[in-house]
Amino acid sequence: MPAPKPSRSFSIDGASVLVFDDKIDACSAAADRIAAVIRDRVSASGKAVLGLATGSTPVPVYDRLVEEHRAGRLSFAGVSTFNLDEYYPISPLDPQSYRFYMDRHLFSRVDLAPNRSHVPDGTVPEAALEAYGRAYDGWIEGEGGLDLQLLGLGRNGHIGFNEPTELDLDRALALPTRPVKLHPTTIADAAKDFGGEEHVPRRALTMGIAPIRSAREILVLAFGPNKAGAVSGSLLGEVSARVPGSLLRPAGPRVTWMLDPEAAAGLDRR
Ligand code: F6R
């Protein structure tokens, strides 16, 4: 199947914004871009390094990558992956853990080596969390950095679990991978998965703003009317840690926003 084309495209502050007819088209285009990066990087250097996201948004991306793999058109043999985040504390065997999600949607369905898929570990001892975050960033650097980072966007504008804060811009842009407290909006949005807000872990480990921004290419996916405010706040509002998605705007890697018409609705006023 050829890659679906966006129905509209424009640029904001150097970022490409692609609006597709629906989220399946956007996810297919994102998967095709990821597959192209894997093929190019593996043929050029023998390996490709991906930053991956969980949540409801990228599920069709992983389905299409699996289809490509099953059709014999895509191998993950040279690929390493680093996921954005994980609840804390949580067991990798817990069906709500992001490790479980990744195994279910991608890792167990493709030929990715088990020691090349990295998801922050929700079982790290409390006292080792900060050191673990630094080590995670070191592993990414040791692989030569991320060729491509896939992102979703929280309703409150979070990327990974970098939640809105009052930090000044320089400090926000330098945030490393670390333990964080989840924002009330994030806890409310996760309640359906955990069978009630009271069961949602209050903390998480998240890749920081700095390692996310150091990726050579970033794809941000956002769909549905619930994301319209976070999308317009990220792309048209002030660049500020209060809307973490806006931190992708200061000059950096190539950023492409892939949206459906509902999520893009707030951009029409630009
Ligand atoms: C998940 C992640 C989060 C989600 C965001 C949107 O790994 O990093 O930032 O991308 O919360 O979640 P969904 O896709 O469920 O709307």
Automatic annotation (TrEMBL):
SUPFAM superfamilies for this protein: NagB/RpiA/CoA transferase-like (SSF100950)
PROSITE patterns: GLC_GALNAC_ISOMERASE
GO biological process, one term: N-acetylglucosamine metabolic process
An MF annotation (GO) of this entry: glucosamine-6-phosphate deaminase activity
Limits of the Glucosamine/galactosamine-6-phosphate isomerase domain: 22-257
Pfam families: Glucosamine_iso (PF01182)
Stored InterPro entries: Glc/Gal-6P_isomerase, GlcN6P_deaminase-like, Glucosamine6P_isomerase, Glucosamine6P_isomerase_CS, NagB/RpiA_transferase-like
Gene3D superfamilies associated with the record: 3.40.50.1360
CDD domains named among the record's database cross-references: GlcN6P_deaminase
Superkingdom to which the source organism belongs: Bacteria
PANTHER family (UniProt xref): GLUCOSAMINE-6-PHOSPHATE DEAMINASE-LIKE PROTEIN BT_0258-RELATED, GLUCOSAMINE-6-PHOSPHATE ISOMERASE
Name of this protein: Glucosamine-6-phosphate deaminase
Native source organism of the sequence: Tautonia sociabilis
